[in-house]
Design brief:
The chain is 81% helix and 0% strand. The protein is built from 13 helices and no strands. Helix 2 crosses helix 11 (201-227), helix 3 packs parallel to helix 12 and helix 6 packs parallel to helix 10 (171-195). The relative contact order is 0.21.
């Protein structure tokens, strides 16, 4: 175990590792409660410390492994047909997003990520959502956009949420749809990241370091979903997302590093 931590310590300062673990816990809270939001919190902050090429695969690994406990209940409540059409779009969008992550300039990716996060946060907090019955082609298209965002930075949740909120589904069913969709899109992302050479040793080391905190946050968030006021907690999540976007701006790197 000491060898493991020594290897991590050679590349990152202790306060950087502490920041990654702390933000992983907060991101897990959002994921466990709302079914989404982890990437909007984790990836911008982690990218400011280790770069987006490491941040996105790390979140993919810890989210896929730690969110397994959400699947049984979500499978019973989800609209599997609609999720299937959404996943079909992700099949097209994820490889494109992975290509962007692998070849684009990391600083450019970070600024683009912040712009997307800010725009999606405004969309979510504004109360706007798609109004109308889900249509096959439109659902596939939204899945494609979400897949693109997922492949590039694991932030595919907000387009899906904004779309599904427009239907007649209850919040518990929307959350279930999101959980199942992410299980499918994460599988696609893992395959795409492996092919793209993004699953490196540092990714696995930092995933092991941050995974327990993320898992604890996911567990507590799921319990809060069953017991707490959903509107209040979502407002807290949105505030945390906004704070994460603010502190992860590239000009503030010297503060974190």
């Amino acid at each position: 175990m000491s060898t493991f931590w020594n290897e991590i310590a050679t590349g990152y300062a202790s306060h950087e590792i502490g920041l990654l673990i702390g933000v992983a816990f907060i991101a897990g809270l959002a994921r466990g409660f709302a079914g989404f939001g982890a990437a909007l919190i984790f990836v911008p902050v982690a990218s400011s410390v280790i770069g987006p090429v490491l941040a996105a695969p790390i979140l993919l690994l810890i989210d896929t492994s730690m969110a397994l406990g959400l699947l049984p209940d979500a499978w019973r409540r989800a609209d599997k047909r609609d999720v299937g059409f959404m996943a079909l779009g992700a099949l097209l969008g994820v490889p494109l997003g992975t290509t962007v992550l692998a070849v684009a300039d990391p600083l450019l990716v970070r600024w683009a990520l912040l712009a997307v996060v800010a725009g999606l946060l405004v969309l979510l907090t504004s109360g706007w959502h798609y109004r109308g019955q889900p249509r096959k082609l439109l659902t596939v298209g939204v899945g494609g956009i979400a897949g693109l965002f997922s492949g590039a930075a694991q932030i595919g949740g907000p387009p899906v949420v904004a779309y599904w909120l427009g239907g007649a589904l209850q919040s518990v069913n929307i959350r279930a749809n999101i959980v199942i969709y992410f299980a499918v899109s994460s599988s696609l992302s893992i395959a795409s990241y492996v092919v793209g050479g993004l699953m490196t040793r540092p990714v696995f080391l930092l995933a092991v370091a941050t995974g327990p905190a993320y898992g604890l946050g996911t567990f507590l968030g799921a319990r809060l979903f069953r017991k707490s006021n959903e509107i209040l907690f979502r407002r807290i999540c949105y505030s945390l997302i906004g704070l994460a976007a603010l502190v992860s701006m590239p000009p503030l790197d010297h503060v974190l590093r």
